[in-house]
Amino acid sequence: MTKLNSHRQPRRGRLFPELTISPEEQAKRQAELEAFRQRCRPIFEKLRPELIDKYYNWFIVIEPESGEYFIDPDSLVAVQKAHEKHPQARFFTFRLNETGICGRI
Amino acid sequence: MIQGEFDEIGQLFFEIELIAANGEKLPVTALLDTGSTEWLAINDQDLEALEWSLLSGRNIVTGMGEASFNSYSGKVVLDTQEFTVEAVAGSEFPEIILGLPWLRTRRLVVDFPERLLTLG
């Protein structure tokens, strides 16, 4: 692990430019994440019609193995509920609206 | 209340601290972007040192279009108060970004003519 102490002054930009992953590794991780999303998306599409009116714009966290889902208006709360039930699982979060997109940066 | 600073092109920066999983505190200068709906965005390559835990994947719209990102449980100190927030990580973030959610309970004052920038 990189020693955090090495930076005493607040800094802008990348914190640890020395920790750089190869473009191939980045692409591999991104493809794997997209594949995981593709597994979760149909579960979201199936649940959306029954939940969207009552919980519009709430967050929905999906665990694809069990098909279980966890909802809350606060994204962090929704994902914490999911982790409590499935501590070892991976999740994908959607938003209960027309796009399922969580937000913007 | 904390004081921020404008950079040479007028972007808004505030000093915060990131808390690594082992408790070490890392002071950073973060960009406040009111166009972001996320609490915090960080370059995913910097996460290794912080050892924050993975929460979930999620899709977000960026200037480059819609994409999938992972989110992590991040600990942040802002104005001497500690917060646990969901932090979005991606390879395209060149800065630490603070988003709109911080403004739901805080007043942002931006006065360019007076060179005044505060949050709190």
Description:
Chain B: This is Aspartyl protease. Chain B: One of its GO terms (molecular function) is peptidase activity. By secondary structure, chain A is an alpha+beta fold. Chain A is 38% helix and 15% strand. In chain A, strands 2-1-3 form a three-stranded antiparallel β-sheet, with helices on both faces. The longest helix of chain A has 29 residues, at 23-51. The radius of gyration of chain A is 18 Å and the shape is globular. In chain B, 41% of the residues are buried. In chain B, the strands form two sheets. Chain B has a six-stranded mixed barrel with strand order 3-4-9-5-8-7. Chain B has a three-stranded antiparallel β-sheet with strand order 1-11-10, with no helix packed on it. With 120 residues, chain B is mainly β. The model of chain B has no long low-confidence stretch (mean pLDDT 95). The chains are: A alpha+beta (105), B mainly beta (120). At the A-B interface, α1, α2, β3 and β4 of A face β3, β4, β6, β7 and β8 of B. β3 (92-95) of chain A pairs parallel with β6 (53-62) of chain B.
